[in-house]
Design brief:
Elements (H helix, E strand, L loop, with lengths): L33 H5 L4 H14 L4 H11 L3 E5 L4 H4 L21 H18 L6 H26 L4 E2 L11 E2 L1 H20 L19 H18 L3 H9 L10 H4 L4 E2 L21 E5 L1 H5 L6 H6 E3 L22 E3 L9 E2 L3 H14 L3 H14 L11 H15 L6 H8 L24 H8 L1
Antiparallel strand pairs: 1-5, 2-3, 4-8, 6-7
Length: about 450
Amino acid sequence: MKSKIFILFSLVIGLVAMTSCEVEEVFDQDNPTLGSVTSNASKSQLQFLVTGLEARHRGYFGGAHTLFGNFGRETWNYNSSDPRSISDVLGITIADTYPDFFGSAGTYLTAYQAVRQAEVLIAAAENSSFVSDQEENGITGFAKTIKAYQLIWPWLQQWDNGVRVDVAEVLNPGPILPRAEALDAIRAVLEDGYNDLKAAGSTFSFNLTTGFNGFNTPAGMIKVNRAIAARLALYDEDWSGALTALNESFLNLNATTPADMNVGPTHVYGEAPDVNNPLYNPFDRATSSILIAHPDWIEDALPGDQRVATKVQKRLLNPVQNNGLRDAAGDLLIGEYQDARWATNTTPIPYLRNEELMLIYAEAKVRTNASADAVTTINKIRNTWGVGNYDGATDANALIDEILFQRRYSLWGEVGHRWIDLRRTDRLNSTYIDLRDRGKIFKQVARPTAETNWEER
């Protein structure tokens, strides 16, 4: 993404600061007001908003990978500048999460900022006389797809606390919905986007970055929308819905190579004034902050599993340690394996991949009594990574355990799938989570103070 476009981040400061103002005589490209882009936006102004949304769309990733990844012990966050990265996030010195929990803004505030950006874009498209109905549908379909995706992260973070889905009016947001109702509402947003995209013609009236290469038309965006729909259906235990969504996604069940597995949209990064890849660290350098693969993930890997070799690399000269991270005997827990997936600080990060879709397909097939199809798909993944065919039991419980194991290795380091998977399948306990760090297993994050205060006003 070219760096000059990232002045767009400032656009959503209106998230909490919408006040009435007089109509300006001149549109200031560098300091736009909300009214100047939602009353009758030109195509260039709409492009400005689209690019801003795509920029906001990336903000959650580092936070989700760190917070959720630590909760599920995919990773440990060695951060010498703030002891809470270990003491609080791993539950070593606290009994439970607390309001405004350390590291939680990335999966709450940041996600809602992207949601608000999407709302502004939708309003601008709907109120513009410069776009046709088809072009408007393309813009709103894209915006609603991203909006729904962003709402997933506070929903996952808050879980039984529930979340707001309707935030179109900043000073009059909708209610906090219980978990199941909130998920229904998020899925409805996604369906609205899907319907808009189906009425958007063959091309978009706006440009997207290379992160959407292969998906930068209404037909391509429908595939992304349906991939998100399949993930949400999985969370909702709507197995037939997951399979239906997968049929219109970019699922490729014939994948046999790592490249096939990695097909999907990505978040793109750049040099300043753009933002860097939040997961990148130079290999084996001395550092005060780094995410390390949990040793249990290394120890439990199947012999010859190429996913380990391609995802992490052992630090030879600079293993890391933190005085707060010790085992029951008081010995330091040394961080040895760092993330090795990113060649540079601008390498794109995939956030929806064919491999995940294959695993959703396999689980949905098990849940709908089509285990043979599930085993075939499991074997495609296993053989891609060099661990051979599955030869275990084929009852539903055994196959779900196998699928969760494959998800643990295929989706490592991708926004905390392990924690999410164990919670949704009632496996969030010490049988599945290694607690050699003497910590606790958190189910969710406490409701933010601002939300509580708003409800009590």
